[in-house]
Amino acid sequence: MGERAAKWVVAQLEKRGHEAVLVDAAELKLPLLDRMWKEVKNDTSAKHEKLREKLAPLAKLYARADGFCVVSAEYNHSIPPGMTNLLDYFLEEYFFRPSAIVCYSATPYGGVRAAMQLRALLPEVGMPTIPSLQPIPSVGSSLSEEGVALTQELAEKSGKFFDEFDWYMRAMKAERAKGVLS
After folding, report:
1. What residue range is the signal peptide (predicted)?
2. Which conformational region is residue 98 in: left (phi greater than 0), alpha (psi within -120 to 50 degrees), or beta?
């Protein structure tokens, strides 16, 4: 179901002229975090070679990103462990970039319990969250396999969420261009 939600988000962002790159924590198969990217990027030991190969492209991608739209399922009323692990590998790459939370579940609650956990985590790693959330309740009947909205509510009422995210990305990009706070 996550693929449906991710495809839908990518399409919504691309409609607004953004380059939307999907980063899937499950596909990356990262080991449990024991050292952050900033600690392994200059470590030339063979021990971290594979990890550097996986993380270096992400670090470059993140550094040029204007924002992060986090698409999350709900796992045990919280964030899926693989997502938390992926998020924790980076820090500076997230600074002064907004995050938007799209959450989903098979239930009518749409993953909002995970979203509340993400609201606490994302600002701690440097990505303040925009005020709005975009839950996708009953994701199996809300989105097609191709990521097309199947409900009128999702098709029509998500525009404000993506407009708000776009505004925050533009505003924070303009401020980053002025220089980082000291």
Report:
1. none
2. beta
The average confidence (pLDDT) of the chain is 94
Confidence of residue 62 (pLDDT cuts 50, 70, 90): very high
Q: Stretch 57-84: mean pLDDT, rounded?
A: 96
Q: How many whole angstroms separate alpha carbon 133 and alpha carbon 74?
A: 14
Q: CB-side exposure of 164: number of CA atoms within 13 Å? A: 15
pLDDT value for 129: 98
Domain ranges (residues) in the chain: 2-178
Domain 2-178 CATH assignment equals 3.30.70.1350: no
Taking alpha carbons only, the member of 88, 74, 163, 151 closest to residue 122 is: 88
